[in-house]
Design brief:
CATH architecture of the largest domain: 3-Layer(aba) Sandwich
Radius of gyration: 18 Å
Number of strands: 4
Helix content: 55-70%
Strand content: 5-15%
Largest sheet: 4 strands, parallel
CATH class of the largest domain: Alpha Beta
Order of helices and strands: EHHEHHHEHEHHH
Strand order of the largest sheet: 1-2-4-3
Number of domains: 2
Structural class: alpha/beta
Number of helices: 9
Length: 204
């Protein structure tokens, strides 16, 4: 895929099926169950890093997953996040291709200290990179995101940091740019909020 022909600006991936794949292959160890999926994601990150794709977003785990799954699952996630964000921070392709790592969600409240430190280190080490953005959604919940966004927008309006006209203009601008708006207003609102977190298009 050459830079001239590539028209993709933002690629979003929602991995699924680890448990189904593991069951079919008679793999019952929690860590091994997810290692293969993580390896595929790592491969995708490295491929995208050298392509002309500015934004890659990976929905790694939902808030429900990190809150409600077994202790064994959470231990596995902590181990994998610690290991893989440490690897990303040292990855030559990340630094050479100007990839900035960002993480969105309530991950700090649900991961252990080692995993949080590894994620924060990867973000700090790449914060000055500006060519591409790699965003992970960890402990993410779209409904809570809408709630937090509404609260932040209300505070910004009441505090006089933005005007009502400005906030409406920015939202309408994003809506005009989206080609998926026929899917309905709820879907569009969630897309807008996610675009704000990844692209910084809307001030809330």
């Amino acid at each position: 895929m050459s830079d001239k022909k590539n028209k993709v600006n933002h690629l979003a991936i929602i991995p699924d099926g680890n448990r189904r794949w593991a069951k079919e292959n008679l793999i019952f160890n929690e860590e091994k169950m997810y290692e293969t999926g993580v390896a595929r994601i790592q491969e995708m990150i490295e491929v995208v890093a050298v392509q002309n794709i500015k934004f890659l977003t990976i929905w790694a785990t939902s808030l429900a997953n990190v809150k409600e799954r077994s202790v064994c699952f959470r231990d596995t996630m902590n181990l994998l996040y610690t290991r893989n964000f440490s690897n990303l921070a040292r990855n030559r392709l990340i630094s050479e291709n100007g990839v900035r790592i960002r993480v969105v969600g309530e991950w700090k409240d649900h991961l252990n200290r080692r995993a949080v430190d590894a994620i924060e280190n990867a973000m700090a080490k790449t914060e000055k990179n500006s060519k591409r953005v790699l965003t992970f959604l960890i402990g993410y919940d779209g409904r809570r995101e809408r709630g937090f966004a509404s609260l932040n927008l209300s505070r910004a309006l009441l505090g006089g940091r933005i005007s009502l006209d400005d906030s409406v203009d920015r939202a309408e601008f994003v809506l005009r740019k989206l080609s998926w708006c026929y899917l309905g207003p709820v879907f569009c609102r969630q897309l807008i909020l996610l675009l704000e977190r990844v692209h910084g298009l809307i001030l809330i």
